[in-house]
Amino acid sequence: MTPPDAPELLAYLRSPQAIRDRCDRLLELACQGQLPHFYCRLDRLPAVADYVLAVTRENYPTLEIPFHSRWRHFEVGGYARLQEFATWTAAWEAGDRARAQIDLAVTSVLLDAGAGPQWQYWEAETGGQLHARSEGWQWRAFAPLLRVFFQSTRPALAG
Description:
Blueprint: H1 6-13, H2 16-31, H3 45-59, H4 70-73, H5 81-89, H6 94-112, E1 120-123, E2 129-132, H7 133-150
Antiparallel strand pairs: 1-2
Helix pairs in contact: 6-7
């Protein structure tokens, strides 16, 4: 039998507030040295911030920092994979397109999880560019994922 407050509890656990509450609790425990693998020393935060700022300015002196996300991995090497995806889904309803984007991103994350630092992929479509790690895996996974996800809506992907 389901307890009467189960729907409310589930709604809370799925909320951003639940995430914030758990993060606050973990931070508190880390600051108290009560986590088995992590600790937090807020007195060192200014030094860490200075270090991050120095590295950022060294790598991006104009502070024009490129956006980074799972989606950017699909764009490595100048090949417009996201434009290809947009073309494939252009006639779809917005909700269906969003679900397909989530499917593509989540699947690629799960498949990429164990690629490791030595993993590389050479791709003929880009003139033989070699990409490693997450970016390489995204390239390797993109066309087969499109074939699987969209085989019922498009005849076939070239390549």
